[in-house]
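TODO from last week: model NAD(P)-dependent dehydrogenase, short-chain alcohol dehydrogenase family.
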Amino acid sequence: MMLENKTAVIYGGGGSIGGAMASAFAAEGARVFLTGRTPAKLETVADRIRTAGGQAETAVVDALDASAVNDHIDAVVEKTGSVDISINLIAQEAIFQPLADISTSDFVAAIAKGLTTQLITTKAAARHMVKQESGVLLFFGGSDNANTSPSLGNVQVGMDAIESLRRQWAVELAPHGIRTVTLLTGGIVDTFPDTPEWAGARQSITDASPLKRAATMADVGNVAAFVASDKGRSITSTQVNISVGACYG
């Protein structure tokens, strides 16, 4: 198994994407620690993993609370001996409007929240990974330099900001053997509401792909597990495009 004896911490582990990654990591032998603010969602994912024979533990952690994040990851390392994989899937507040229609305060607050939680959780993991001289920091979303979609509001700007943060982490942490990789996505249609309002978004993502299909949650988990494993050890300081060609990062 690719991730045998590895420890993975997933912030937002009760969500669709977090659950997909957790399941894939556990299937490859990792011991996964799921955090979030809704115990029932976390336990649903953990139960699914345990039923399949994997190892999963949950904890209610506010990823905007630096003390809570640090206390949790310290406890994980004390229990397992290391933290090998960390990913924060806490979604920023999305405001899908033309920039001219968004209030300055709302725009700045949403971007700041996304950057703050990413900085807190990455600092916490990096503190232990530097001591280990190893580890993988995964990011999700990425920067699409060819974006031509209007009315994305703060969404792509926020992902661009986090990608810039990831690049800086890559420069600073590479000397310690730590890899940093972003999974570039154009949207995972499995996670969209099954409503007429979202039908167009689903179709546009599929149409943008040269293969005329969209990445699934299973695809996300499988790629994440490979990238985080030693088989992906040559991949760092970059984005891995999981958009089925819809994005051009």
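Done. The mean pLDDT is 93.
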